[in-house]
Design brief:
Layout: E1 2-5, E2 9-13, E3 17-22, E4 27-28, H1 30-44, E5 50-54, E6 60-61, E7 76-80, H2 84-96, E8 100-104, H3 107-121
Parallel strand pairs: 3-5, 4-6, 5-7, 7-8
Antiparallel strand pairs: 1-2, 2-3
């Protein structure tokens, strides 16, 4: 497990997925996501991976991030939160993401899902 910290995220890397935790009150824009995805893709060096968005902090997300070319290369996204309002926001995100997208209330369940995504491909 490797961790990296950016101005907007804490990133925790595992073999086939990354857990991304946005910092409290961050504004996640097109540019922020593009920069973060480049860092994540560099880490995985061409391997397929999934992203777990662990939403334990409040922040704002521009839905236009889902138009980025790099985001279309992600195997899947899981959103983790126990907040019902966050689930509503994630439902909107799911509508604009073409890949596998799911919602969990428990981080460990999301990790098992992420690991299974790689096994499905194999």
């Amino acid at each position: 497990m490797t961790t990296k910290r950016t101005a907007h995220y804490n990133l925790i890397f595992f073999d086939s997925f990354v857990v991304a935790e946005a910092h409290e009150d961050s504004v996640i824009t097109h540019e922020v996501v593009n920069e973060t995805l480049k860092l994540i893709f560099d880490h995985f060096k061409g391997k397929e991976f999934t992203i777990i968005s662990h939403r334990k902090n409040n922040y704002s997300l521009d839905l236009n991030v889902y138009t980025l070319k790099l985001i279309k290369k992600i195997r899947g996204i899981a959103v983790v939160s126990s907040d019902s309002g966050m689930k509503e926001k994630a439902t909107l995100e799911q509508l604009v993401f073409d890949g596998s997208f799911t919602f969990f209330e428990d981080l460990e369940d999301a990790k098992r899902w992420a690991e299974s995504m790689v096994k499905i491909k194999a």
